[in-house]
Specification:
Elements: E1 13-17, H1 22-38, E2 43-46, H2 51-57, E3 63-66, E4 69-73, H3 78-84
Parallel strand pairs: 1-2
Antiparallel strand pairs: 1-3, 3-4
C-alpha cells in the first residue's frame, strides 16, 4: 500500500484570478500543466466577492500561492513553478 504524503510533502497550490484576465488564463494553463505532470492538485480562487483579496492583490493578478505564501504573480514561470513544487 502506498504511504500518504506527509504534511511537509503536501503542497497547497492556489491561483488567485479575476474574470476577463488574459494573464490569468495563461497562468491557469501553466499551473494545470505543471501540477498534472507532478500528480498534484490545485485550486483557483477568484478575487471577485473577496474584498480582502482584491484589495491586497488587485495590481498583481494572477497571483500564485503555495502553502499560503505568495510565490509568483503576473506571469507564472513554468520552470520556476516546477522547481518550487519539487519537480
Amino acid at each position: 500500500m502506498d504511504a500518504l504524503p506527509t504534511e511537509s510533502e503536501t503542497k497547497d497550490v492556489v491561483l488567485l484570478t479575476r474574470p476577463d484576465c488574459h494573464l490569468c488564463q495563461e497562468a491557469r494553463d501553466v499551473v494545470e500543466r505543471v501540477t498534472a505532470s507532478l500528480g498534484l492538485g490545485w485550486a483557483e480562487q477568484s478575487v471577485v466577492g473577496a474584498p480582502d483579496l482584491l484589495e491586497r492583490f488587485a495590481e498583481e493578478l494572477p497571483v500564485l500561492l503555495i502553502n499560503g505564501v505568495q510565490r509568483d504573480f503576473w506571469v507564472i514561470d513554468e520552470a520556476r513553478l516546477r522547481k518550487l513544487l519539487g519537480g
